[in-house]
Amino acid sequence: MNGDVSVRILIVEDEPQIRRFVRNALAAEGWQVHEAETGRQGLSEAATRTPDLLILDLGLPDMDGVSLVSDLRHWSSLPILILSARDGEQDKIDALDAGADDYLTKPFGIGELLARVRALLRRRPPGGEGSSQFAFGDVAVDFSRRSVTRRGEAVHLTPIEYQLLSLLIANAGKVMTHRHLLREVWGPTYAESSHYLRVYVGNLRRKLEEDPAQPRYFLTETGVGYRFQA
Amino acid sequence: MDSTTPRRLPISPYLLALAVCILTTFVCLPLRPLLDVANIVMLFLLAVFLVARLLGRGPAVVAAFLSVGLFDFFFVPPQLSFTVSDAQYLITLAVMLAVGLATTHLTASMGEQTALATRKEGEARELYEVARELAGALTLGQVAEISQRFLERAHRIRSTLFLIHADGELKTVLLPDHPHGAIETGFIRTVIDRGEMLEIDTLAGSGMAALYFPLRTALQVRGVLAVSPLDQDEDALHALRPLLGTLASLMAIAVERLHYVDVAQDTQLQVASERLRNSLLAALSHDLRTPLTALIGTADTLALAKPPLPAAQQEAAEALGEQARAMGKLLTNVLDMAKLQAPHVTLRKEWLPLEEVVGSALRLLGAALANHPLRLNLPTDLPLVEFDAVLLERVLCNLLENAAKYSPAGAAIDVTAEATAPWLTVTVSDRGAGFPAEKDGEPFDPFALFVRGLAESSTPGVGLGLAICKAIVDAHGGTITALPREGGGASVRFTLPLGNPPAIEEERP
For A195, which of B298, B352, B360 is closest by C-beta distance? Predict the structure, then answer.
């Protein structure tokens, strides 16, 4: 629990009430918190403070949150958690496609907020070269041998299933949009054929989950995409 | 009808023809010693030609015969007698008659054709004028007025315009100062059904419309133009059929154009009102969610305070958070309902397995279902179904939450699915108090109070939750029903159309 004081989190949110409780909740964990009210201010804070995590409200008065994300992604890979009060999934999808990592829909509680923040902080450094072994539940993946075993027994995955699994594991904790996954695994011509993705995620669940109807690892972000959570 | 014959004085052309022949005879008589007989024949033929050109076919025929007679009597020896001494003159006379008649025929036909061409040109000009006016018409009344004025003035025809309205009803476009003939609506219906012109033999002067023209466009018949003569005979009217047919086409185009102007205006209005509605809902959503978020966050801050608050305050902080969360759910439901009650609900339909939304609904509910063992019975071979995942997740969440609320702790909740063409049937069943029998079917009325064994106050927003389920399932073309469950409890069953899921290409190894 006791946070690392070197962790810096930047909040970009125009509502002072929300900013205040988010700041208090994060500070109570022992993290250093910086605040910004506008998108412009947020961008310059992000450049000067080099935070470890950005919490960004999509409904900023001066600029579109989605374009802020894509601006930031030109020079930074810091994890971004989106706060969205808007209805409809499209704005979240746009922000995630632009490079955001996760989202929370208002209203949210402190418990949810902290869980997401911890998960994102755990992910850093992003893209860090881990070992060639990965394990979750009773499943073990050996990337060097391209093999998957469950309770010690080999599980047969098709090439696409394996590719999808690797991509999800590589982005563990991050929400991956349907479009992104389809583009990466099937190629750009399949960007609108989301039924392929649904069927293959279903296959992975059937092969690797205890109860495919109540998955623990391959989580559905309804209307948005999937998240692998170890 | 012979348009080349002037109508006013029908006898004078014949007298004129006679005069011309006699004049020719008198001109030729003094020239007789000077001219050859053959040239005198030429002069007579010239006279016949002139008569044919100027006076028309009938007088020219008379002139041809008369010329032959006069020539024979005055110029062929023996003179002043019809007897012919030299048989050769018989040939002269026969050729003269033949040439005279042929000239008559050719000249008269030419005149007739010129007249016809002039008339056609006049008609074309008239139609062009009407077309121009119709193109500028802004209302259906103007279309009727333009065509009626044209027919009445130019052709002495009485006309009535019938239009088919959007609801299929037939309506007359009535103009106050225009007399209307007796119309048989049965004929109108026939014309609309067949899409072809109808011609009726009517008693003269009965005032019955004699011709019915469909206003036919590429896709449908938009109306009927019924015409009857004001004072002409019916033959004259029937001769105008091609003109009337063209007029009907022009009117059809004008009516069609006005129809699409209406459609475009309606659409524009609808888009504008929908945009207003959406931006209003988005603003409402934002403005209500922001303080709610602050409220929940602040309540959580208090509840999680270190060191912990005294027990009473801790309890109050938790209750505050709980109530704010309940309000958040209610707000979501109210806004969803408002969106679903829009005239055009847009669904983000995708093909996906039911299992996926069941899973996400269960995860979303989490702790709310902690006291109830879940029994899922989803066949593994269920086909993909096309639905809006976010909305269907809402349906399942609402139904499961409801089931949990009304069941005693520890009672199982069953979710079963079954695909029997053409429906996917999903049932959520509990072992709670069940629906009151006499109110069966009513819980899904958004305005009906939902009573179900427990006190209303302890179940806020339940009626709305079920109303949303119904609105969502309806929008997908499915049905939703509440049933008492055998052995106690309640079941809610909803269906979704199965359709034809897209194919998945087999992966090549």
Answer: B352
